[in-house]
Amino acid sequence: MKVCFSLMFLGCLVACGLAYPSPLTAIDEVPSHLDTDADLLTLEPDWEAMPQDNLQRVRRQLNVQGGGSPRQGFDLSINGRAPVWQSNNGRHSLDATGQYSQHLGGPYGNSRPNWGAGAQYTFRF
Question: What is the pLDDT of residues 82-110, one digit of tens each?
């Protein structure tokens, strides 16, 4: 049961890290007028001066679900999706998908883990 909650907590942390990347990673160069470490810590990105290529957000998804009771057992499910390829005009895209689920505990014990992987093709009209 401790493993189940640890996996759910770890999955939530990973999901938050992937969904909200640091805006400072899009900055290519530090302006020359900043000469102290204190200035670097307070650096705000200049969104208007950045090329639009750096502002696109990568659409990754990580879904973690779980629930149950100590008497009946717990269900854990993790699904993820990450982009693999996108055409130049953005109309065609290919995403990789993966999933894991398992029932933990309860009167019948742990179930065998259920793993899966796949691909998702999208065409935008």
Answer: 999 999 988 999 999 999 999 999 888 89
In a domain, 28, yes or no: no
Burial class (CB in 10 A: 0-12, 13-18, 19+), 100: middle
Q: Which of 18, 45, 10 is nearest to 30 (CA)?
A: 45
Helix ranges (H only) for the chain are: 2-19, 37-41
The answer as to whether 94 is a domain residue is: yes
Residue 34 lies in a domain: no
- Residue 2 is predicted with a pLDDT of 55
Spell out the residues 6+ positions from residue 92 whose beta carbon is closer than 8 angstroms to its own.
86, 121, 122, 123, 124
Report field, pTM of the whole predicted structure over 0.70 = no
Domain count, the chain: 1
- Host domain of residue 117: 1-20+60-125
